[in-house]
Amino acid sequence: MNNNAYLLINPLKESSLDLANKIKELTSGKVVMAPNIAVAQLYLQQELYNAIFLTLQPDQDIQSLIYQLPSSIPIVVVSPIKELASIAYEYENIVDFMLYPSSEARVWRALNRAQYTPILSNTRIEDSYAFIRAEAQMLKFNFNEIEYFSAFGSYSKIHTKDGVLVINEPLDVLMNILPSGVFRRVHDAYLINIYKITAVDSKSFFVHDRDIPIGKSYQKSINFLFNVKAQFV
């Protein structure tokens, strides 16, 4: 497990160093501690983590916390309240529940579960459609129904003619798995269906009345794609 990184969120003061030290000793990996979800989201944007250790207290809304974290990273819930275990296991990316305090052997078991427990895929791509997870459901979207995707923290929003829905996949993942002949990243915050573009100018694409800005770092590839380079220089 060398060269790994682990994120501890909302750690109990008396347990944080103990758990961090155990993880370091067992993995020789890096341990980063975030005092809350907001700070954790900043860390998650800067580095990849093998697992998240999330401390829960009885007065916290577990659903709100889980939905603010990437669904592709395994989560180990840590709590001194054993009754929270039954709630925690309702979420698919929670791979283990660990009572505090925990022995070194118990931490090792949690690390192994995080490493080897498969996380249910959030997206399945077919020739002309995709099944994309929105909360607990896998929903089918035909490519010709999707107008664009927009960034939404660790998740994304899918925009169709029928409305907007939050999905469990970040834009970086969508960009790599959706067909590039249909969907193109045009901005850090937007992935667009090129067949839904109704107009274009030097700064934006338009999907009907929606203005989608063009990011500077994406301009060259977009100009080449649409053969309108002369308009943008």
From TrEMBL:
Gene3D superfamilies: LytTr DNA-binding domain. Transmembrane segments: none annotated. One of its GO terms (molecular function) is DNA binding. Residues 135-228 form the HTH LytTR-type domain. PROSITE patterns: HTH_LYTTR (PS50930). Keywords: DNA-binding. InterPro entries: LytTR_DNA-bd_dom. This is LytTR family transcriptional regulator DNA-binding domain-containing protein. It comes from Flectobacillus roseus.
